[in-house]
Amino acid sequence: MKNITNRNTMIWSSLSTLLPMLVGIFLWNKLPNNIATHFGTSGRADGWDGKGFTVFILPLIFLAIQLFVVFMVHFDPKNRNNSPWLLKIIYWLVPFITFISMLGIYGVAMGYSLLNSEVTTNALLGLVFVVIGILLLVVKQNYTIGIRISWTLNSKENWRRTNRLAGWLLILSGAVFLVNALLQVDWLIYAVIAIIVIIPIGYSFTLFQKGI
């Protein structure tokens, strides 16, 4: 029964990444020929693609990413240590990001300027960081998600401590992004990413030197 449920989750979460394609087809006549598909940290558009590429190819790219995640999670022997609900969240993370991102792209293309603002960009980043941070607080040793470096993969205690630290840093970073939705400091994203990458790795190495 568990295998059937897990298989259904993998199938439906993967298929759901194509929902934005159906939305794009429905909105086809309302969308311009060139659509902004990339936005800088300030929330301003800095990259455009054709309508056909945006509606049909972008969802397929997200589907490819989702299938890669599903493959990695499903065939990772250490993921058997993780609870089923945690794996479900991992399976649905890419579809969630896909749906929100594509709705934002369609919204901007149709003239809803609120979706093309620093407020929305920072709020979405904050939400994603918080979700991933919560995952890292509880995820057990595996080869798919988490701070996966030699020291954490060779020591369960090193993994637990390092990923808990990274999890809290991500949650705090998510809160910072939510506040930055109002402050709108452009360079903050780079500083936050540097912190959440450097500190956990340095901490893990320190634990390794202590024999943990």
UniProtKB/TrEMBL annotation:
Domain DUF1648: residue ranges: 17-62
Task: Give the matching InterPro entries.
Answer: DUF1648, SdpI, SdpI/YhfL
Give the UniProt keywords, A-Z.
Membrane, Transmembrane, Transmembrane helix
Indicate whether Nuclease appears among the record's keywords: no
Asked if the record carries the keyword Transport, the reply is no
Q: Which domain of life is it from?
A: Bacteria
- Which GO biological process annotations does it have? response to toxic substance
Q: Which residues cross the membrane?
A: 12-31, 51-73, 85-109, 121-139, 165-183, 189-208
Protein name per UniProt: DUF1648 domain-containing protein
Query: Upper lineage ranks?
Result: Bacteria, Bacillati, Bacillota, Bacilli, Lactobacillales
